[in-house]
Structure formats: C-alpha cells, structure tokens
Amino acid sequence: MPFTPYHFGPSAFIGLVFRKWLDIPVLVLANVIVDVEALVIHLFRLGYPSHRYCHTLLIGAVLGLLWGASAYPLRHLFKWLMQILRIPYQTGFWKMLISGVLGVWLHVLIDSIYHWDIMAFWPSHARLPHRLLNPQQVEVVCLAFFAAAIIVYMIMLILSYKSKTDRTGEKKHN
Ligand SMILES: [Zn+2]
Questions:
Q1: Where in the chain are the domains?
Q2: DSSP helix/strand/coil, 89
Q3: Nearest to 32 by CA among 84, 102, 103, 101
C-alpha cells in the first residue's frame, strides 16, 4: 500500500470485532512500525525495492514480537486512549505479542497483493498471488473496511450507552 493509513481500516475492523482476544492499539500501530522500513529505504536511497525483510512473514513475525514486547510498558497509555474512545480494553503481555505478529502479517498480506516487490515467504522466492486485485480494488477494499470499522464502533458505543442507561434505570426502579 502506498500509504500506511490505508492499512488502518482492515486492522481497526479486525481489532474491534476480535477485541476480546486482540490488543487494538498494538494491532493498528503495527502498520506504522512495518512501514518504517519502506520509509528508511526511500529516505536514505538505499537502492533496494522499498519492501524488504520486514515485509516478509518470517522477519515480520520477529518484528511483531519485538513490537508487542516493547508496547507492553505502554499499556497504561493505551488504556487511557481507549477510555477516551470508550472502547473496553483489557490487555496482557501475550495478547500484545500475538497482536503485534498478526498486525504485521495482515500488513504484509495486503501489501503483497498491491506491490510487486514483496516476497512474503522469504527466504523462499515464492510469492503470494500478486495482483489478485488491482491497486484500485485494494484501496476500495481497505476503505470499505474503514467504513465497516466505523459502523462497528458506532454500534459498540450505542450498545454500551444503552446498557448504561438500562442499568441506571434499573437502579432507580429498585
Ligand atoms: Zn507496507
């Protein structure tokens, strides 16, 4: 994907739907971590194709584990952020590790469809079906996931508001 933000749609959607098992901030921010590689290659004109080792399932998993582990000390910051967004948030070390790896893998999968230079199965040169969708279709799918994530988020807010008012209503009744 040319821009990291396109990745936010699919990962926000998956994070929200599976929030019981996944750490949303770790999953979403993994996209930024992976693309630092493309940015560095581009900025320092290293002459490689922009997607190298971090954009593989193998090194990507290591990167995801490192990101998950280094995000652990940030869990209170994430909790505060999620409280502002009114998203229930409970995390743990393992949850953060798993979310880090899945976040990077999801990024690699989406990028593999979009970019010709990704070797997801490195050190094997086998490639995922590149151009399964054309670039515009990938962008549309990412944006559709973004819209779906907003809908899931809205439903979540409405349900939590409803259950809160129901509870206060019950208390008054008692
Ligand atoms: Zn990327």
A1: 5-173
A2: coil
A3: 103
CA 57 to ligand 1 center in whole angstroms: 12
* Dihedral sign from CA coordinates of 49, 7, 90, 84: positive
Output the CA 103–ligand 1 centroid distance in Å: 11
Between residues 125 and 7, the one the model is more confident about: 7
Tell me the two tokens of residue 135. Answer: 């670039």
> How far apart are alpha carbons 122 and 55 in whole angstroms?
9
- How big, in percent rounded to 5, are the helix, strand and coil portions of the chain? 70, 0, 30
Query: What is the 8-class DSSP label of residue 20?
Result: T
Residue 41: other Cβ atoms inside 10 A:
17
Q: What CA–CA distance (Å, rounded) separates 111 from 133?
A: 11
Q: How far is the CA of 7 from the centre of ligand 1 (A)?
A: 8
Interval 20-38: pLDDT, tens: 999 999 999 999 999 998 8
Neighbours of 105 (CB within 10 A): 18
Nearest to 61 by CA among 31, 90, 100, 89: 100
